[in-house]
Amino acid sequence: MILKIIPLTRLPRAFSTFDYLTNEELETSVEIGQLVKIPFRNKEIFGVIFAIEKNTKNEKLKNLIDIVNKTPIFNPKQLQLYTQLAEIYLVSPSVFLKMALLPLQKRKLTKMLLKKEKLNNKKEKPTQEYYFYTSQDEHQKLYKNLKNTTLIIVPEVWQIEETKKYLPTNLQIKIVTWYAELSNKEKFENWLQIKNNEKNIIIGTRNALFLPFNNLDQIIIDYEHDENLKSWDSAPKFHSKDIVKFLQKLYSCDLTFASFSPSFEKYYEINKGNVKLNKKLNKDKLLFKRKKTDEKSLAIVVNFANTNFVQNKNIFSLDLEDELKNSEEDIFIYLNRKGYATSTICQNCNFVESDPLTGLPLIYKKEQNILYSAYSNFTKPASSTCSKCHSVLTRMYGYGTELVESELKKLLNTKTTHNIINIDKDTDLRQLDEKKQNIIIGTIAAFKSIDWKKTGLIIFLDIDRQLAIPEYLAVENIWHNIQEIEYYRKKDSKFYIQSNKTEHVVFKSLGEKDRIYRTDLGSRQSLGLFPYKYVVKYYYGADNEGQSKFQIEQTTKNFGSVLTKISKNVTILGPYEMQPKYFRRRYWYSFALKIADKNPFLIIRQINQQIPGNYKIDPNPISLLSP
User: Fold this and answer.
1) Which of 352, 403, 418, 500 could cross-link to 439 by cystine, CB 3.0-4.6 Å?
2) Is residue 524 in a domain?
3) Nearest by Cα to 461 from 379, 400, 544, 535
4) Is 34 buried (19+), middle (13-18) or exposed (0-12) by CB count in 10 A?
């Protein structure tokens, strides 16, 4: 017999299975889905049996070494799913198998006991619902009556503990968690509990989607609006909301999306009737019913136009200065930039100090007195004169967390007992003092560190810069950030948003939430973007900019005839230079495809057969411009 085995090692995407023979002793014991030992490049590694065929040609191949566990870990349908996903995301199937497996520790694997799989009867019509909640009490009701085996996916690790608190006491002993930061020992134990159905409520982050469940009765995607449900920083760049559609078909399980701030995509599906809502819509099909009591608690938009802004003075309006001086509770100041100033511009010749590799403005860091790039290792000493014309008329624009901290200390001077902390993803959170009042200055990474019950003042700064980002999801992301604060903050807290663009639809929608959804979706429809068409981005990076640009242009040029043969429902966007164009020591160029088809993944698999092997893919991207 010939065993087609997927080696559990890093492989180019062109390689999926390798052929091996089995000796007479093991021949009667081999099954599809077993974990085995194989010889591979002069060493022993693990692999998974994908298929078994007769050796009709008497081929001479390497022999299987041993079967690690006679009970198959995967069933054939699970293996088919992993290979389908590999074709979609341009990786080897081994990538998804490694994500699905427990730590492969030889000593422990020999003692591993696996129970044989017992399949439940499949549902004829699994449901797809949306659970919209507006309070933590409503949120808790989502977890009141969970089905037999339930997978709960949350965007970030800290939300796992939050979710556990919502589950009834009688279900706490049935919970098991899965996320990347678990130790190997914890992963090994938790994986076995999941595989053997010893615990049937699994709470995890996006990688938990690939675990080889024996059965699934229900999947819940909570905080479904959050972009961290997308694997945006490493390959394969999958979106959880795409993967669950495959899982629903595989396990015939019910699917529930939930959030306090529905994504624009799900708002569209709810109104189309594709997803059933847990609440009744009114006559005009509005999701958000406006209450008079809500008007008093809405965020206050401060119209801020300050002529001294270029000199980095008065970054707070006068009203906010008074609020900051008089607040006796915790304060949270949000903005989406680190550093002191976000750009340095010459008033004489308009020269912008930029990264020579990415072309993006350099950020000023006052503490080291340097200009640096957030995307490359480029730094240079800051100077009071222009690098181009040597004029002294240089000015710094924009502001980051470092500048806000500096200006705040000047404003408050010695008139505060607050502990001022600048939080980003690299901050040591031990600086937080629970016994004192804190002023937290931070990006979105700070949200998980805030004690909302103690926070009486919340300020949104520099929102205009975010609104100006040329990405189709920019407005939606800002909207969800605002709604997250609205959801968590206490009723008597004060929430200010400072802007020079107070007529923007984001602010006009604060008391009329359906407005932002309908306005933005209208723009996407006219541009043919998601959810009206499925978008998939292809990009290529080379250490030479000309080579990268040429490769993308040639591929795009040749794709016209290819797409005509595959589908008439595909259009090309691009080619275009990515932002930043230089990232991780490569220059990046891209093009995107817009697919108007009910089954875009079938088309993507066909298209991928024509894509060169050194390309990268990002289906359902959260950014069209970033590599």
Assistant:
1) 418
2) no
3) 400
4) buried
Neighbours of 107 (CB within 10 A): 6
Closest CA to 239 of 224, 255, 249: 224
Is there a single domain that holds both residue 182 and residue 321? no
Q: For residue 223, what pLDDT is reported? A: 98
Which H or E run includes 300?
strand 300-303
Say what the pLDDT of residue 119 is.
Answer: 63
Judge residue 284's burial from the number of C-beta atoms within 10 Å of its C-beta, 0-12 exposed, 13-18 middle, 19 or more buried: exposed
- DSSP per residue over 124-148, as a string? SS--EEEEE-SSHHHHHHTTSS--S
Select from 329, 462, 321 the least CA-distant residue to 402: 462
- Which stretch of DSSP H or E encloses residue 556? helix 545-566
**Statement to judge: residues 597 and 505 lie in one domain:** no
DSSP string, 273-299: TSSEESS---TT--SS---GGGGGGSP
- Looking at the fold, whether 541 and 503 belong to one and the same domain comes out as no
Structure tokens that stand for 379 in this block = 């730094």
Residue ranges of the chain with per-residue pLDDT less than 50: 293, 306-312
Would you state the structure tokens that stand for residue 264, as one six-digit string?
A: 């624009």
* Spatial separation of the C-alpha atoms in residues 29 and 69, rounded to whole Å: 10
Same domain assignment for residues 233 and 103: no
Closest CA to 100 of 76, 79, 127: 79
Q: Is the dihedral of CA 594, 598, 600, 602 positive or negative?
A: negative
Domain shared by 327 and 418, yes or no: yes
- Cα angle 417, 419, 425; round to 5: 165
| Residue 71: per-residue pLDDT | 93
Q: Is 615 in contact with 12 (CB distance < 8 Å)? A: no
How far is it, in rounded angstroms, from Cα 513 to Cα 261? 10
Could you tell me the residue range of the domain that residue 147 belongs to?
Answer: 128-277
- Domain match, 271 and 324 both: no
| In-domain check, residue 282 | no
**367 shares its domain with 447:** yes
CA distance 175 to 167: 9
Q: Which helix (H) or strand (E) holds 118?
A: none
Assign residue 462 a region: left if phi > 0, alpha if psi is -120 to 50, beta otherwise? left
Separation of alpha carbons 374 and 360, rounded Å: 9
Q: Report how far residue 481's alpha carbon sits from residue 179's, in angstroms, rounded to the nearest whole number.
A: 24
Q: Which residues have C-beta within 8 Å of that of residue 72, sequence separation ≥ 6?
A: 31, 32, 33, 34, 49, 117
Q: Give the CA angle between residues 228, 191, 114 to the nearest 5°.
A: 150
Residue 220 falls inside a structural domain: yes
pLDDT tens per residue across span 14-73: 889 999 999 888 988 999 999 999 999 889 999 999 999 988 777 789 999 999 999 999
Task: Please count the structural domains in the chain.
Answer: 4
Number of Cβ within 10 Å of residue 319's Cβ equals: 13
* First CA to last CA distance, the chain: 45
117 part of a folded domain = no
- List, in order, residues 6 or more apart from 436 with CB less than 8 Å away: 417, 418, 419
DSSP 449: G
